[in-house]
Fold this protein.
Amino acid sequence: MTAPNPVIPVPPADLPRTLGELRAAGHRYRTVKQELRDNLVARMRAGADRFPGIVGYEDTVLPEVERALLAGHDMVLLGERGQGKTRLIRSLAALLDEWTPVIPGSVLNEHPLHPLTPASRAQVAEAGDDLPVGWLHRSMRYGEKLATPDTSVGDLIGDIDPIRIAEGRTLGDPETIHFGLVPRTNRGIFAVNELPDLAERIQVALLNVLEERDIQVRGYQLRLPLDLLLVASANPEDYTNRGRIITPLKDRFGAEIRTHYPVDLELELALIRQEADLVAEVPEHVLEVLARFARAVRESPSVDPRSGVSARFAIAAAETVAAAALRRAALLAGAAPPAGGDRDPAPTGGTAVARIGDAVSVTSTLRGKVEFESGEEGREIEVLAHLLRTATAETFRARLAGLDLSGFTDLVAEGAVIETGELVGAADLLRQVGTVPGLAKVLDRLGMGDAPTPEEAAAGVEFVLEGLHLTRRLGKDVTDSGRTVYGGRG
């Protein structure tokens, strides 16, 4: 069982410390589903964000999730890999009360006003209003299990503890049971990721949890009315082929919700901006190329549509491009000592700016994230490189349509060439280009403002050169050393 936040918060000092104080404070017992419903409705009425960090589902998936929560339904999320199913499930914990009272020492997180086990009921009856009350933070009320073939009923539900039997307790005594992950998340949310990978005989163990809300351990007549929300995720391919959710279990989920990849380019970009951990500046036009690239890969007939192309593909691409920019900046800083003789330390973060040429590396480093059709074996990099060029050309047209770019084509009209590449610095590239008519308008269209840095200007120049090549207005050659040379088409 995992918690989104491993640091256990400390309860505020003003919370009731005994059962009597809890009653006097007017606290009332609510089930988890009532709690989620009340808090969701309160956020709706306040206009607050119900699912922070979830991008692209506002008009599709989230309304269905909200209806399921309001109806008190357990749910299963179906979608290809990298669609944010797990993140969405984990965000549900934020709808729980921040603090909830528990009986101290109870492995089932029993509520002082609603004890479950005979031992806890006896403890409440004996102590009365003097019963100590503990407080559980909502981050500790979320449990999660990745379904694997070796998962057992004991892992999920529980098993007899032979040590407790040896200590003299009788069979059938609830105290002899070592509870599994599901009952230990009582009064919380429990998630099963990739449910179809769970063996069918293990799925049977969840039937009572979903419908009768109790558990059975090795045939013992033990009724513990569990109070939890059960959520599962599944890949549609697994759902129908490699594994399946057994029919009685499917029937017990109140809601089946389909997830999807970002429906448009802006949402894809928003997801990259939110999730990518960039070690260098990546201009907007480069991010747009990567977003279009990810969407093109997803839609390509060369790619297996059943496996999908994860949103992590575009995120990793952005991080790779940023890393390439940082590598260039560091190597160039160390290659030429300044006049004083000592080398400057390698620059970090903000001094490095990604260029469109840095995107070439993603075709090799990220091909493992894509499942190709069997007929494309050996052509994976070729297919990805073609799709990257297509995405670059589309971005070029979208960003710079209508601009007069003759100043750039004139640079090579007399047989001159412009050389760029992974280890060509911004100053070197700009020196080759000189003063170009229309460059200011290009940089403005690319969102670089009135005073771009040399690195930003170089990124804009390289993008124009590549775009002109892809639209057949400039020639291009790649040297043996890996440098890119732009020249006339003759």
Q: What stands out?
A: The mean pLDDT is 87.
